[in-house]
Here is the input.
Amino acid sequence: MKVNGYTAKPAQKVTVGDTVTYRFEGFDRILEVTKVLHTRVGAPIAQTAYVDHSPPRPEPFMTMALPRRERGSGRPTKRERRELDRLRGRDTNEGRL
Here is the structure.
């Protein structure tokens, strides 16, 4: 979590105009504080205290899922590792003389 671009401590005080950035479910949320609330309130009231400047999330079909190995299948063999490297676009001979 960051406040105005700096890492925030748990007791960090925010004021009107501060920008709060945090990561939620793999995506960054960017919020601008418009009102400081001094007591705990419900979600509908809390939503009036900030403006959301977060970019829209991409469609679920747009994000490509990473290939997963089955549980218990062990480490990939040399052949499987090379195939994974090719899929990821990495050169298997990179860094060798």
About this structure: The chain has a mean pLDDT of 85. The longest strand covers residues 27-33. The first helix runs from residue 43 to 46.
